[in-house]
Write a structure and sequence with these properties.
This protein has a single domain, classed as Immunoglobulin-like (Sandwich), CATH 2.60.40. It contains two helices and seven strands. The protein is of the alpha+beta class and 124 residues long. The radius of gyration is 20 Å and the shape is elongated. Strands 4-3-6-7 form a four-stranded antiparallel sheet. A three-stranded mixed sheet has the order 1-2-5, with no helix packed on it.
Length: 124
């Protein structure tokens, strides 16, 4: 083995580690749904133009008691109905980690989903 090749190997390993840490394996992002307006009746179009990844976190901010967030399937999204026993968030500051594929959310307060308080977010 040539002299100094151990140092070159260590440098190469360090460069590779840096590339991995800054590439696709980087830390997930946290997105505040609706930006400054928060989770509201007008939030349905908020995901447009954004790129989400599995593991990213959606932060739903809203007045506690005024709204909620319910994770639903495609049928629940379309019909504005939550399945019995489904996951409902109601803290006013809810963190939801995205799964790969399309993630669906509604507000189950009567009339809110029908007024547009629902959202579909697709994570790569």
């Amino acid at each position: 083995m040539a002299r100094g090749s151990g140092g070159a190997t260590a440098v190469l390993a360090l460069v590779l580690l840096c590339v991995l840490l800054h590439g696709d394996f980087a830390e997930s992002k946290v997105y505040t749904v609706g930006d400054r307006a928060g989770w509201a009746l007008s939030s349905g179009g908020w995901p447009r133009g954004k790129r989400f990844r599995a593991g990213d976190v959606l932060l739903f901010k809203y007045g506690r008691g005024a709204h909620n967030v319910v994770a639903v399937n495609a049928a629940g999204y379309k019909s504005c109905s939550a399945a019995r026993g489904g996951r409902t968030y109601n803290s006013g500051s809810d963190r939801v980690t995205l799964a790969r594929g399309t993630n669906y959310f509604i507000c189950s307060v009567p009339g809110h989903c029908q007024a547009g308080m629902k959202m579909a977010v697709t994570a790569a």
